[in-house]
Structures are given as C-alpha cells and as structure tokens.
From TrEMBL:
UniProt superkingdom: Bacteria
Location of the PDGLE domain: 4-106
Classification via Pfam families: PDGLE
GO cellular component: plasma membrane
Subcellular location per the Swiss-Prot or TrEMBL entry: Cell membrane
Bilayer-spanning residue ranges: 83-104
Protein name: Cobalt/nickel transport protein
This protein's UniProt keywords: Cell membrane, Membrane, Transmembrane, Transmembrane helix
InterPro entries: PDGLE_dom
Transmembrane helix is among the record's keywords: yes
Length: 110
C-alpha cells in the first residue's frame, strides 16, 4: 500500500511538472541549435524563412522524426500544446518503463 501511494504521488508530481511548469520553460532551450546559428541571420524570402551568412545550420537537415505527433515539444505542431505534449510524454515513458520492468521482473520460483 505504501508503494502505491509513493507511485501515485510521483505520477502526480511528474504530470504537474510536465503539464503546467513546461510553459515556463525557455522558448529557446536548445543550446546546440543556438550554437549552430552563430554567423547566420534568419531572413524571409518569398514568405519562407531562410538563413543568410555562413553557419553550421545551413548544412542541417530535418530529423527523420520531425513530422512525428510529439515533435518540437508540441502535439501536432501546435505550440500551444506544450503541456499536453509533456503529459503524453510522461505517460508514454512510464508506460514503456513499467511494461519493461514488468517483463523483466524477477519472478518467484516457489
């Protein structure tokens, strides 16, 4: 019973942090993205953003999962859904980890 209470408390704290506190996070958290942009400027050409200058980001390509449902910390690309993406990520991670632990648990031989 005590383990169940701990798990429920852990789950609630994780969901609150993922669902509510994630909106307070920096809108430009990826230092690597920032570092690859050094030397370039974003300009708009024919309604699309392009890079002007010389930087590492000009040779970057889209990630293979960039069109996945939870890409860019959002659900379906909607930036207002950051909290929902966090909650879904917590539930998915706990589900996968819980399933893995359940499969690999040490079973009693008695």
């Amino acid at each position: 019973m005590r383990k169940r209470g701990f798990f429920i408390g852990f789950l609630l704290v994780a969901l609150v942090i993922a669902g509510a506190v994630s909106y307070l996070a920096d809108s430009d958290p990826d230092g690597l993205d920032h570092a690859t942009m050094v030397g370039c400027e974003v300009v708009e050409v024919d309604g699309a953003e392009r890079l002007k200058g010389d930087c590492i980001a000009q040779r970057a390509r889209e990630h293979q999962l960039s069109s996945s449902p939870l890409a860019d910390y959002a659900v379906g690309g909607d930036e207002r859904s950051t909290g929902m993406a966090g909650v879904l990520g917590v539930l998915l991670t706990l589900g996968l980890a819980g399933g893995l632990f359940w499969l690999l648990r040490k079973r009693s031989t008695t």
